[in-house]
Amino acid sequence: MKNECKIEAKNLNLFDIICLGFGGAVGSGIFVLMGSGINFTGKSIVLAVGVGCLFMLLAYFYNVLLSSMFTFKGGDYSQKAITFNPFFSGISAYVNFTNGFSIAMYSIAIINYASIIFPSLLNYSKIIAILIITLLFAATIRGSKFISTINSIMTVILIISIFIFIVFGVSKVQSGYFSEGNFFRNGFSGFISAIAIMGWACQGTTMGPVAVSAVTKKSKKNIPLGILLVTVLLAVVYFAMSYVAAGVLPIEEVSNKNLSLVAKEIFPYWIFVIFIIGGAVFAIATSMITAITMVRYPILKVAEDGWLPKICKKTTSSGYPWVVYLIFYIVSIVPVLLGFSLDVIVSLVMIPYMITNIYCNLACIRIINKYPKQWENSILHMPKILIDIICILAALSALIVCYNLFILLDKSQMILMLGILFLMSIFSIISIKTGNVSIENLEKNKEIIIQEALNEED
């Protein structure tokens, strides 16, 4: 009976995985960061987004590799649990809170787009950004069953908006795009910086598919294959979008600007207004709601596992984790109060993730050695030396992104980033040394996850 339920639960096929992966990957990041990418590298943004998709696929390669060997019920959480040592388990726990910086980025981006239609908003940008963050956090108190429905609707609107942007825009691109200069406007370093900053928009191809591996038919084949196909599809779509974004107006006009300038040039006004409000603003708002909602259980689990003081486990009578959400809220408004740019906020969010990804990608070499049978049956199976090289390249990709995001910061921001990483490290060590977190329990949890994965039928 138990096995029957498992078989019935596996109802997602390759097409479902592609749809899920693409819907999760193509998002507000491209609306928010295209101007920054163009500022760094000019018209070669069309190449930067393609290479960026490859870089981010490599940076999250452990997701692809481990999905080809095991079927994890807990998705990315389970994958990290089996790769991390206790210290990095703590780092990973605290990284959840840096997601709060992305909330700030979304609120700023909403104002930047909405101000195109309502210019007076810019005069009160900080106040409105904090108000938006506050209202959305308040909305999570009661819980929102309709959020997933809204998210699906907004994803459809987003994809339609992107499609219309490409269709209307391609015919308006000025001739000589590939022959009249402004390629690699800041040299190779500018190109790499564009790849790093666009990494936010180019990531996400692995998370959705990995999360549903337990309910996917032939998951060890369809998850890795689906991720690879989604990456190619995303690169093509972003190539077309960046071609329009950098080709309709002079580079100087669109550098460090959002897509609204190009949209105003290619659309009739009524479509332009719909694109800004219905496409950009709503899409970014949905990403913001999702970002706030999705951390609820992970950060509560962080508290329950002992990585945070006991007070952080407090919830309301309905189960709302108000203490950890209060911390998350404070983290979210700090970048707004400090007046950080979108580039800086992306760096603050992505650098900790890239550091943990470096570790995960290198740890895959050890896992392949430890589970030779699973590696032998993997769709990615190849000579051992070759997969070791790929794992090292994957770690190197994450390192390159991490480094280039770091050097975009000024000295005070670098100190802030290093301070955040230092505090994460100190908190992790203290939690382990004081016994608040049980190493024995971490190891038991790792064994349970592995055993469930080994027993799972594909």
Structural notes for this entry:
With 458 residues, the protein is mostly helical. It is 76% helix and 0% strand. It contains 22 helices and no strands. α7 crosses α8 (125-139), α9 (147-170) packs across α12 and α18 runs antiparallel to α20 (384-406). The chain is globular.
SSE map:
Elements lengths: L1 H8 L4 H12 L2 H14 L3 H15 L1 H9 L5 H9 L2 H32 L7 H15 L7 H24 L16 H16 L4 H5 L7 H29 L3 H4 L5 H7 L2 H26 L1 H9 L17 H16 L4 H29 L1 H5 L7 H23 L4 H23 L5 H17 L3
Number of strands: 0
Percentage of residues in helical conformation? over 70%
General shape: globular
Q: Compute the gyration radius: what is it? A: 22 Å
Number of alpha- plus pi-helical segments: 22
- What is the domain tally? 1
Give the uncertain stretches in residue-range form. 1-8
Counting helices, strands and paired strands, the structural category is mainly alpha
**Element order, helices and strands?**
HHHHHHHHHHHHHHHHHHHHHH
CATH superfamily: Amino acid/polyamine transporter I
User: N-to-C terminal Cα separation, in Å?
Assistant: 17 Å
| Largest beta-sheet characterization | none
The CATH class label is Mainly Alpha
| Proportion of beta-strand residues | under 5%
Under CATH, the topology is which?
Amino acid/polyamine transporter I
The CATH architecture: Up-down Bundle
Please, what is the average pLDDT? 84
Summarize it:
This protein has 458 residues and is mainly alpha-helical.
What attributes does this structure have?
458 residues; mainly alpha; Amino acid/polyamine transporter I; 22 helices; cell membrane; membrane; APC_superfamily; Amino acid permease
